[in-house]
């Protein structure tokens, strides 16, 4: 079992900060950071949280730091649909539904879909039934050959951008589940010298072709800024927008049954 000092040093290296960098950011002496990392000084719970905040350590891992130092965890992990988070869950649902007629969905840290609005339904119709068994995974749905991958015109471009995004996510919050998905659908971890970012990443188009018709979308991600619950810290809302009038019409025109798609 790692000591709290070893874990803090690991996170500092992951963030590519020197002891002096961290000390200045946390308003402590670099000597104190050194003593904590080497186990020569036992940090208080508040000091651990202060250092963790400046290292951008996820809440789940902050609990691990506290436990390693002999303190009780500070951050709860409650179900989104439970009583304690009912207000947050209701707000999330309102945001997702208000985005109709365009698709929006909520994913957890493993990219499992927790909630989606009705605009996603036409896309799900193209996926194999086993991919739609709960929990539906967004990466598997998008990149599996039995999912939406055959319909994604710019699959290579989207995959490249998602590689960079997931690599950053794994650097911030390591997850065996997410790493397995990364290796299954996005290849091996970045090789030396490989480009890790994309200038087009902010508004990367996702171009689908269904029955000869192209639907061009771009997405945005919304997360909670200062959550105090692990569950809220690990969820995000993925919202999709049409890039042209014809794509917008796909979601608003009646389908063959005379109903609007959303």
**Which band does the percent of strand residues land in?**
5-15%
CATH architecture classification of the largest domain: 2-Layer Sandwich
Number of helices: 12
Task: Pick out the low-confidence regions.
Answer: 191-200
- Total number of beta strands: 5
Structural class: alpha+beta
Mean pLDDT: 89
Structural Rg? 21 Å
Biggest sheet: strand arrangement: 2-1-5-4-3
So what's the CATH class of the largest domain? Alpha Beta
Oligomer: single chain
The profile of the biggest β sheet is: 5 strands, antiparallel
Chart the SSEs and their pairings:
Elements lengths: L3 H11 L4 H8 L3 H9 L6 H10 L4 H10 L17 H13 L5 E4 L5 E4 L4 H4 L13 H6 L11 H18 L3 H10 L20 E5 L2 E11 L6 H4 L2 E7 L2 H8 L10
Antiparallel strand pairs: 1-2, 1-5, 3-4, 4-5
Protein name: Helix-turn-helix domain-containing protein
Pfam family, one: HTH_31
InterPro entries: Cro/C1-type_HTH (IPR001387), Lambda_DNA-bd_dom_sf (IPR010982), MLTR_LBD (IPR041413)
Structural summary, described in words:
This is Helix-turn-helix domain-containing protein. It comes from Hamadaea flava. Pfam families: HTH_31, MLTR_LBD. This protein has 262 residues and is of the alpha+beta class. It has two domains: 4-68, 434 Repressor (Amino-terminal Domain) (Orthogonal Bundle); 86-252, Beta-Lactamase. Helices cover 42% and strands 12% of the residues. The protein is built from twelve helices and five strands. It has helices at 4-14, 19-26, 30-38, 45-54, 59-68, 86-98, 121-124, 138-143, 155-172, 176-185, 230-233, 245-252, and strands spanning 104-107, 113-116, 206-210, 213-223, 236-242. The protein has a five-stranded antiparallel beta sheet. The longest helix is centred in the middle third of the chain and has 18 residues, at 155-172. The protein is elongated.
């Amino acid at each position: 079992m790692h000591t709290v000092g070893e874990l803090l040093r690991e996170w500092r290296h992951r963030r590519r900060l020197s002891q002096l960098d961290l000390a200045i950011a946390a308003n402590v002496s670099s000597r104190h950071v050194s003593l904590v990392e080497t186990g020569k000084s036992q940090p208080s719970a508040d000091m651990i949280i202060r250092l963790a905040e400046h290292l951008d350590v996820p809440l789940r891992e902050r609990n691990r730091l506290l436990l390693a130092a002999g303190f009780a965890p500070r951050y709860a992990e409650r179900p989104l649909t439970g009583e304690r988070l009912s207000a947050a869950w209701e707000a999330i649902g309102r945001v997702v539904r208000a985005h109709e007629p365009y698709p929006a969905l909520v994913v957890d840290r493993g990219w499992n879909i927790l909630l989606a609005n009705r605009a996603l339904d036409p896309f799900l119709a193209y996926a194999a039934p086993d991919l739609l068994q709960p929990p539906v995974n967004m990466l598997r749905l998008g990149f599996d050959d039995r999912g939406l991958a055959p319909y994604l015109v710019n699959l290579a471009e989207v995959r490249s951008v998602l590689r960079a995004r997931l690599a950053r996510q794994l650097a911030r919050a390591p997850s065996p589940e997410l790493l397995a998905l990364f290796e299954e659908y996005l290849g091996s971890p970045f090789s030396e010298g490989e480009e890790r970012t994309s200038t087009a990443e902010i508004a990367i188009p996702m171009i689908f072709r269904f029955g000869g018709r192209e639907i061009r979308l771009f997405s945005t991600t919304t997360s909670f800024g200062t959550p105090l619950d692990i569950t809220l810290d690990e969820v995000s809302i993925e919202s999709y927008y049409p890039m042209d009038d014809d794509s917008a019409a796909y979601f608003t025109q009646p389908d063959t049954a005379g109903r609007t798609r959303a």
